[in-house]
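1st attempt posting a full record on here, be nice pls
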Amino acid sequence: MARRNIDLSILGDDLKLDNAVSTTETKESVVISQKETTSKENSNFMSLIFPESLVKRIIASELHNEETIQDAISALLKIGQESEAVFAPKTLEMSKGNKLKYSVKIPDGFDAFFADTVKLNMLPNHKSRFVVHLLDWVLNGCPEMSVEHNVLSEEQMLTEVIRKSVLLISHSTDKKTGKVVNEIGLSNSDYTRLDQKRMVGLTNVVNKLNNSKFGIEIDTKKDLVKIKLEDETEIKSFDKFLSWKAFH
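the predicted structure (as tokens):
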């Protein structure tokens, strides 16, 4: 694909990007293009946060011929959305380092694509992180995403089962994760710091989840999860539960 050249010589060693709003971790940004972004009127724009390292990759990519980083991001999102390969991330962790914020035009149908993907893969409802992972996948050539089977310790396994249980409740009730956690009787920090808890602390979390109104029971003695459906109870081992596509 033919691509317009962007003169980056004015940037020096530190890459500076057009119309970026820096977060507390970011460096001050300067304009690299005089081209104004298109009018936002009647368009679906969203403010999103990106690692600076990813933004550099986007600018250098041959997958677009846009003059602004905002338009380049929109073009790459459309590629990911329309890819024949299935985007199925296992996590939406955000890398550390400098971050840049942009107001980006979201392609038509993207919100539905986002909602379907996070629900199918039991992911947090976090659009910035989702977009970052999608862009990274597109820049890597939209590879087929293989299923990885990592060996987990007993505590790690229970932590993942708790997380998926909360996300299952969140997606099935259309409630935000934080609200579900609070209704179970946990604080937000209880949930975000599951990795730091020992088995005793995780068991306390399980007891509160089991005593909640949401119809999921975790049996730590038999390593089973019981999910109460409308007219039956489905029982899955921890391994089967973690690989289960509940909304497929």
